[in-house]
Amino acid sequence: MITFKRNIISLALTGALLGGFSLTAKAQQAETPIADQAQTEITPDELNNFADAFVEVQSVNQNVKQKMMALITENGLEVERFNAIQKAKNEPGSTCAGNGR
Predict the structure, then answer these.
(1) Measured between alpha carbons, how far is 56 from 76 in angstroms, rounded to an integer?
(2) pLDDT tens, 40-97?
(3) First-last CA distance in the chain
(4) I need a surface site. Which of 11, 41, 55, 71 has the fewest CB within 10 A?
(5) Planar angle of CA 12, 15, 21, nearest 5 degrees
(6) Domain total for the chain?
(7) Full residue range of the structural domain in which residue 64 is found
């Protein structure tokens, strides 16, 4: 069990470094100065709690992604096309109809 949690912690930290927690990280950055984050000590119990939460968050995240993809396809679009339209809609100067700009 300890090895499993160490693997999860390692995976979680790697994922966080690669941007796996982009929304969470952005929220935390807004609330916590970087200097405070570097000085934060993490207890073994907190690290275990983090590992447990990480596994659950990943599961929820996967379920949400699947639901979003289903909604997109149910509305007659492929995910790639949906993403392209979303990107175009958010670009300044876009001629995408209804972009509100």
Answers:
(1) 31
(2) 889 999 999 999 999 999 999 999 999 999 999 999 999 999 999 999 988 887 776 6
(3) 54
(4) 41
(5) 95
(6) 1
(7) 2-90
